[in-house]
Amino acid sequence: MGERIAHLRHRRGLTQEQLAERAGVSVDVVRKLEQGRRRSARLATVNALARALDSEPSYLIGQPATFETRAEPEENAPSVLALRQAISPVADLLGGEDDPEDPPGIEQLKASLRSTEEIRRNGRMGEIGILLPPLIRDARAVVHATTGSERAAANSVLAVAYQVASVTLTGLGKEDAAFTAMERSMLAIRSCDDPGLETMAASTLSYVLTKQGRLADAERVALVRAEQIEPGFRSTPRELALWGILLLRAATASVRQEKHGAVLDLLRLAKGAAESMGRDLLLYATPFGPTNAGIATVNFLVEMERADDAVRAARSVPDLASLPPTWRARFHVDRALAYSDLDKDRASVGALMLAERDAPEWMRYHATSRRLVEDLRSRAGRRDAPVHDLADRLGLLR
Questions:
Q1: Pick from 24, 37, 270, 356: most CB atoms within 10 A?
Q2: Is residue 72 part of a domain?
Q3: What is the pLDDT confidence band of residue 130, given thresholds at 50, 70 and 90?
Q4: Is the pLDDT of residue 36 over 70?
Q5: Does any domain span residue 326?
Q6: Cβ(157)–Cβ(193) under 8 Å?
Q7: One-letter-per-residue 3-state SS of the chain
Q8: Domain range holding 39?
């Protein structure tokens, strides 16, 4: 990270002092990062530096930029290019091409989407990269080949597939392509049969904008939609969950702007909705309820540098096993960050091991996990310390 910051700082003609002033951070932080004495920083700091350097946070943190390939045959390997081509086919600009003669039926299409969503919840990024391009092409073909209710149902599948593609591309640091996927999703939503997808599109768009470093835009997108669907006394658990998901998205953008008062207000509202629900619901591969509100609390406390409070809050999160593996893994990473801030490196590594147990492939793509492991490895005294093996499994260079 330090090398990338120094490179961009020189390109912008800034001294370390000027960069620190522009970003609103300590010059000591800039110096330590550039000298390699500090290998990671809070996401609020990363966002501030990226904004001052006119860059994306994903570039500064060295997010993985493509899919891993294992032992798959070349034709079955996941491909960023194939995903881009599915989202933005040149045929749309050149007058279109014929769709397949026998597009799948709508039930087959829905089954393919359910399978993809399950893989996504488990964090198997490579498989998502393989399955998404044909799913998007098939859904487009069904939209073109059908009318009425079938066409509306196909547009719903297409809208969700585009959103999954957007999240996947964002995880690879391709935020501009992810934004294009969201534009496509929102077009499909206009002709779909699922009113909840508009809310989920706002949530996903807020996530993409947050990763772009457009934090005020991300906060606004989530809050505007949350106001539009604000629940009442007779709201269903599903309606409460959709609203709560948006509140947590807005809080994520707020905490990275260091608007801690707004974060606590949004979290209070989200917890109220979660308590009214009684249990977590899984909507379009995204959970919300008491458990997810609990792990969000831990995340925000870590971001606000309240590590002691985060560790305490983590002990009271209910029914953690009910959440998808990637959510559990992210919770353990937040615990690891809190322990690291408290100089409890052994406990931090232990929490990371739990995260790896839940979602090993997701860990290899998750930039925060990789940065933290790199940091812990640099401080580990013994060569046989478990963190060295973990770093090797994550593919971190020595």
A1: 270
A2: no
A3: very high
A4: yes
A5: no
A6: no
A7: CHHHHHHHHHHCCCCHHHHHHHHCCCHHHHHHHHHCCCCCCCHHHHHHHHHHCCCCHHHHHCCCCCCCCCCCCHHHCCCHHHHHHHHCCHHHCCCCCCCCCCCCCHHHHHHHHHHHHHHHHCCCHHHHHHHHHHHHHHHHHHHHHCCHHHHHHHHHHHHHHHHHHHHHHHHCCCHHHHHHHHHHHHHHHCCCCCCHHHHHHHHHHHHHHHHHCCHHHHHHHHHHHHHHCCCCCCCCHHHHHHHHHHHHHHHHHHHCCCCHHHHHHHHHHHHHHHHHHCCCEEECCEEECHHHHHHHHHHHHHHCCCHHHHHHHHHCCCCHHHCCHHHHHHHHHHHHHHHHHCCCHHHHHHHHHHHHHHCHHHHHHCHHHHHHHHHHHHHCCCCCCHHHHHHHHCCCCC
A8: 1-62
Q: What local confidence, expressed as pLDDT, does residue 381 receive?
A: 77
Q: What percent of the chain has pLDDT over 90?
A: 83
Residue 67: partners with Cβ closer than 8 Å, 6 or more residues away: 77, 78, 79, 80, 125, 126, 129, 172
How far are the Cα atoms of 12, 58, 158, 161, 193 from residue 197, in angstroms, in the given order? 41, 27, 11, 11, 9
For 174-215, what is each residue's pLDDT tens digit? 999 999 999 999 999 999 989 899 999 999 999 999 999 999
**0.70 cut: is pTM over it?**
yes
CATH of the domain at 16: 1.10.260.40
Q: What is the pLDDT of residue 364?
A: 94
Query: Is position 24 within any domain?
Result: yes
For residue 172 the two structure tokens come to 């690879």
